[in-house]
């Protein structure tokens, strides 16, 4: 993202540096109460789970704050979460609940939750699921994430988006060559796809997805929004709960 840190490094920084600083602050406070560092050190060595608990609490707090900010921005500017006609979208166009996923095909978290997320999609045929291919892990044109995003969008033009989405996220080590192979294996006309991938329309679409992600202050992938509300967790169970809550409103 130009000269500013990209969302992926920024999220990693917040995920680890914040909790560590919080843990240090608690240690300092304990040191003041107990009188000397040795006793604090001994206490933490006897109870190492406390550090992990502090880190987890810090991460949960950061996720909640990030989700709150994204939700605030979406509510202030609903166009950011309006379904773009170019978006791969599945489910009724007039659905009462819409789920948007921002993801990167190289993102380990995206790969981990994809099977359950697709199962969740099948279990909710009355929900509209929207996919936004946000290439952030290598943002330069021609990078693998960028290539995969454009390839999937080209596959969408041939009605093969979901098979390609599933295949790309199931592949542990993507490259332009493996992406081309997966396109062909999933019924995509490669020559046509390559022409579409290089078109101004698809390149503009990838750029527009990046712009909306930045406008929503997204911190990384995957990010899920249910009726314009960002979820704090990426776990499919949490997405299912958010869908159920949206249906009940």
Automatic annotation (TrEMBL):
Keyword Heme recorded: no
Source species, domain of life: Bacteria
Pfam families assigned: ScsC_N, Thioredoxin_4
Keyword terms, alphabetized: Disulfide bond, Membrane, Oxidoreductase, Redox-active center, Signal, Transmembrane, Transmembrane helix
Database matches in SUPFAM superfamilies: Thioredoxin-like
Keyword Lyase: no
Ranges where the Thioredoxin domain occurs: 69-248
Transmembrane feature ranges: 16-36
Function: May be required for disulfide bond formation in some proteins.
PANTHER family, A to Z: DISULFIDE BOND FORMATION PROTEIN D, GLUTATHIONE S-TRANSFERASE KAPPA
Family to which this protein belongs: Belongs to the thioredoxin family. DsbA subfamily.
Protein name: Thioredoxin domain-containing protein
Lineage: Bacteria, Pseudomonadati, Pseudomonadota, Alphaproteobacteria, Caulobacterales
